[in-house]
Design goal:
The complex is a heterodimer of chains A (about 230) and B (about 60).
Chain A (H helix, E strand, L loop, with lengths): L6 H21 L7 H16 L2 H14 L5 H15 L2 H11 L4 H6 L4 H17 L3 H10 L5 H11 L7 H23 L4 H33 L2
Helix pairs in contact in A: 1-11, 2-5, 2-11, 3-4, 3-7, 4-10, 7-11, 8-10, 8-11
Chain B lengths: L2 H7 L9 H9 L2 H18 L14
The chains are: A mainly alpha (about 230), B mainly alpha (about 60).
Chain lengths: ~230, ~60
């Protein structure tokens, strides 16, 4: 098997085992009666995650440029391109939040959920103290299982909100497919050592674990809001 | 104990796993297997008994 598969296909095979569970857990975020409130909560959490994306990529780029191992140059190129593509996405969230009836200033003023800090913070540890390739495990979790455009249509129908309130979902549905392919190419062709592959696995599992906790907090919030 | 039998013991249903997935699972270290099983059981707990899923699939992020 080792001769026929790549780091990318092995990582995807592993994540595919967990994807249905995370998708089912995510589905609970919007299955209550107060879908609009649940969507606003989702945007609040998305803002705290999205604003961390470019700084996290910059940290990974900085570490990649400092390393001299064979995969470092490819990582630096990859992170440079990714920074360009991800810049400005937190403004999508702010614009959606305003279109959904929220006050964008609240997004900047509210403190992030602890689960988000754990999810993002873990990646700083992996990339600083192990190797910057670790961030690819986190990105595989986020880029290979994007929200579908169908989700935006469904939420628009159930909340009565205009289509302009869902750019974060529709934008990522389109972009993540392209980003996912770019990531897969790097994982399939980069000179990745056995230890680095183990780190990718560990990072990806940490992120699935962390996203599960983020979802759990959002579901709890939605269920509290549904109570009479 | 192999990785697969340890996963089965931890409640991991491997009936639907592809040959490629089985091979990947076989290659994991004991520590990775414990982590994988822990993550999976937490997700199942978070999903509860709700049959719903994200419209169109995916995780929403």
């Amino acid at each position: 098997m080792a001769g026929r598969t790549t780091t990318g296909t092995r990582l995807r095979a592993l994540l595919d085992l967990l994807a249905p569970g995370l998708a089912r857990a995510s589905g609970r975020m919007f299955c209550g009666d107060r879908v609009r409130e649940a969507y606003l909560s989702w945007l609040e959490v998305s803002y705290s995650m999205t604003r961390a994306t470019v700084p996290l990529l910059r940290a990974a780029l900085q570490e990649s440029e400092r390393r001299t191992d064979p995969v470092a140059p490819a990582l630096a190129s990859y992170y440079t391109a990714q920074i360009k593509d991800e810049s400005g996405h937190s403004s999508w969230v702010m614009s959606d939040y305003a279109a959904a009836g929220g006050t964008p200033r609240n997004l900047r003023e509210r403190l992030a959920a602890p689960a988000v800090a754990r999810l993002v913070g873990a990646q700083y540890y992996w990339l600083r103290h192990e190797h910057p390739i670790a961030l690819l495990g986190h990105m595989a979790v986020l880029e290979w299982y994007p929200p579908a455009g169908e989700l935006a249509r469904s939420l628009a129908g159930r909340t009565g909100l205009p289509g302009t309130a869902f750019r974060t979902i529709t934008g990522h549905a389109l972009l993540d497919a392209h980003h996912g392919d770019r990531l897969a190419r790097l994982l399939d062709t980069g000179p990745i050592s056995r230890r680095q592959e183990s780190l990718l696995t560990r990072s990806a599992l940490t992120s699935v674990h962390g996203l599960g906790d983020v979802v759990r907090e959002l579901v709890a919030r939605a269920e509290r809001s549904d109570r009479p | 104990m192999t990785g697969l039998s340890r996963l089965a013991e931890l409640g991991f249903d491997l009936e639907l796993a592809t040959p490629e997935q089985r091979a990947v699972l076989q290659s994991l270290s004991q520590e990775e297997i414990e982590l994988l099983a822990d993550v999976k059981s937490r997700l199942e707990e978070a999903a509860g008994d709700v049959e719903g899923h994200m419209d169109g699939g995916g995780f929403c992020w």
